[in-house]
């Protein structure tokens, strides 16, 4: 018998020892060596270093940089903030191209969106204190609707269910919003563009952000009372350069207001639509969770009755 034949018989004997030939067996050849080989061949992937997630980290860095320039540098801030928002579309393309869609990436993307928008609205609240309640309401609506929607999707639809997969029977509005990438991109982009326009108007519009030191008729005289527009020395009014009054003075007349008004006017209808979608999303998610609660209570009663 040749050496090759002996090796073949030995291999056949090894395989036959690993076949389950019992009456209820599956007759499947599974060896420890095969398992170890499969484990070695299976790549040890690092989800945190997936391309779309790296893009997500870049968005965070750009957003933080835009916040640094936000108080007094509108052009630099708007550029950095806009690039961060536009990368939101690129990470989805990268996830599909490299087959690297992950739950971590989806959550990272949503958290980044919510936090950056909230930070911009916080600034607008400080720029226009009279409208602070409105901006606070928009922050609350944005956070609440997306949190409720994602929680309802994960708890009711399953851990592997994406928050963007909405059945048309549950909500026609949300189905149209999430089903089309084009619609989703336009709504999100123009919603952010509206708030960027408002941000630029806080530097340029004398209608929305008048200077704190406006000349008044001479008959009223000069007063040393803090906050009086007639006070002759602005630095004595706002000793701290980071006070609200000093920041408003520093923002005054930094740029022309024409294009900010155009940006705000064009994007305003889409922003209103986006807030309507947020309301629908909040209501639908609440009802979905309530349906789950009722189903669980019904099941619990049935178990108790048996």
Automatic annotation (TrEMBL):
One GO term of the biological process aspect: phosphatidylinositol biosynthetic process
Main location as per UniProt: membrane
Entry GO CC: Golgi apparatus; membrane
Protein name in the entry: CDP-diacylglycerol-inositol 3-phosphatidyltransferase PIS
Keywords: Lipid metabolism, Membrane, Phospholipid metabolism, Transferase, Transmembrane, Transmembrane helix
Keyword Chaperone: no
Similarity annotation: Belongs to the CDP-alcohol phosphatidyltransferase class-I family.
Compartments reported by the entry: Membrane
One term of GO molecular function: CDP-diacylglycerol-inositol 3-phosphatidyltransferase activity
Record's keyword annotation contains Ligase: no
Membrane spanning stretches: 183-203, 258-277
Species in which this protein is naturally found: Byssochlamys spectabilis (strain No. 5 / NBRC 109023)
Topology in the lipid bilayer: Multi-pass membrane protein
Domain of life: Eukaryota
Cleavable signal peptide: none
């Amino acid at each position: 018998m040749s050496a090759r034949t002996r090796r073949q018989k030995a291999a056949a004997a090894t395989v036959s020892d690993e076949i389950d030939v019992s009456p209820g067996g599956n007759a499947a050849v599974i060896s420890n060596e095969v398992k170890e080989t499969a484990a070695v061949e299976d790549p040890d992937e690092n989800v945190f270093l997936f391309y779309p997630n790296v893009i997500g980290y870049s968005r965070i860095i750009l957003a933080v940089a835009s916040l640094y320039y936000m108080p007094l540098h509108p052009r630099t801030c708007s550029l950095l903030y806009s690039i961060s928002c536009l990368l939101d579309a690129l990470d989805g393309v990268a996830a599909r191209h490299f087959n690297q869609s992950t739950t971590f990436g989806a959550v990272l993307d949503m958290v980044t969106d919510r936090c950056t928008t909230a930070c911009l609205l916080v600034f607008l609240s400080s720029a226009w204190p009279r409208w602070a309640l409105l901006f606070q309401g928009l922050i609350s609506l944005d956070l609440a609707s997306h949190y409720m929607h994602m929680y309802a999707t994960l708890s009711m639809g399953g851990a592997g269910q994406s928050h963007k997969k909405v059945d048309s029977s549950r909500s026609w509005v949300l189905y149209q919003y999430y089903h089309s990438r084009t619609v989703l991109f336009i709504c999100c982009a123009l919603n952010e563009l509206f708030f960027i326009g408002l941000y630029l108007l806080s530097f340029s519009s004398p209608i929305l952000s008048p200077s704190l030191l406006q000349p008044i008729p001479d008959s009223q005289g000069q007063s040393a009372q803090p906050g009086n527009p007639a006070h002759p020395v602005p630095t004595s009014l706002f000793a701290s350069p980071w006070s609200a009054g000093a920041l408003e003075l520093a923002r005054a007349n930094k740029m022309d207001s024409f294009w900010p008004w155009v940006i705000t006017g064009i994007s305003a209808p889409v922003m209103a639509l986006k807030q309507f979608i947020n309301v629908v999303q909040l209501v639908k998610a609440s009802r979905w969770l309530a349906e789950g609660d009722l189903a669980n209570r019904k099941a619990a009663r049935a178990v108790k009755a048996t």
